[in-house]
Amino acid sequence: MKFPIHQQAKWIGLAGLVLCLWYGCAPMRAARWREPDLNDSSKFKYARLQANQSPFRFVPAVGQPRYAKMKKYLDSALQQTNTNAFLVIKNDSIIYENFAENVNYSTLHPSFSVAKSYIGTLIGMAIDKGIIASTNDLVIKYMPELEKNDARFRKLTIQHVLDMQSGFDFDEDSTSPFGSIAKLYYGNSLKNQVAHLKMKREPGQVFEYQSINTQLLANLLARVSGEKIESLMAKYLWQPLGAESDAIWSLDGRKTIKAFCCLNATATDFAKLGRLYLKKGNWEGKQIVSSHWVNGTVNPDSLGKRGYKNQWWACSKISYFKDSLSASQKLAKLNLKAPIKKMKNGTYYFQTKSNDYRAEGILGQIVYVNPDNNVIIVRLGNYPNKNLYFNGFIPAVGREIN
């Protein structure tokens, strides 16, 4: 039997209501909007971070003859890559810029998970200020209610959460509208989702990228400081770093910051987080975050050990060879030791530690820092149409700039 159109709409509405009551309305939003995209800031309410009245500005230095070859290469390579903004900064000077049509220095871009590196930095600052005693503290010292969820919370440290080794029972698969990440992204109450967290394994055993880790860190920060995350961000990072833009940060239905993502700002303002770490936490003579925290985060011996530390990513330095003998000879020449591995196509490679690192978000949002060459690269946009892997491409560019 076929129902009239108005009755079909009624049943669809009732089905949607049942789904919202059973799962919450996150699956409905996820099914409607699908996976995150560059326009998501228009879908959520937001908090605003005010620009500094006396902002810090990088020096425009585009067009220097010494970088003409780099410009020609990048102009060609970035075609058909859905790149909205690509900046190369060296010694505080912008030596290369590439903007999509209708995009400029004042355009706000979504950070997605680049925002995680800001939260990691705020944790470091809270430790510097004594608000949090140590990353070795148990999470339940500050959020004791979590212990009743799972006995394994008695072993969970802040460091486990910072390094994505928590062991939470959380699904990061964004393809399902009923998954944990869909609820985190589209749900109405981030606090409730954190409050009901459970574990699937002992903490400290396995690295597993889970955005709920960052949201828990933000909830913990808000708890111990008595301030909202947006207030902490404005007071301790956005204003001190001389932000040029009025950034916006998406909220859930109860006006809690989506701390694991969703900070929207200009390319140059994102670059300033990279500059803070490049300067070992010092900003124009003022120590914003301790050099101890920065060194403990991005030192290649700590960051490169697992590839992820304190909400920052290590950059891999991989060398490829046609045969194992060539790889062995190169290692000997460099006086290095590293395992030589064979790829499916028959070529060989080895990986060595590198001093560069990055903050990263989905769709290819990257803030890359190279302390060897004093270079920062910011790339913002969508996944490229052509076969270009930005996680490898950007470090390769940064390592060649002298």
From TrEMBL:
Pfam families in the record: Beta-lactamase (PF00144)
Keywords of this entry: Hydrolase
EC top class, as a word: hydrolase
GO molecular function list: hydrolase activity
Listed Gene3D superfamilies: DD-peptidase/beta-lactamase superfamily
EC numbers: 3.-.-.-
InterPro entries for the chain: Beta-lactam-related (IPR001466), Beta-lactam/transpept-like (IPR012338), Diverse_Enzym_Activities (IPR050789)
Domain Beta-lactamase-related: 82-385
PROSITE patterns: PROKAR_LIPOPROTEIN
PANTHER family: BETA-LACTAMASE-RELATED, BETA-LACTAMASE-RELATED DOMAIN-CONTAINING PROTEIN
Protein name: Serine hydrolase
Annotated source species: Pedobacter albus
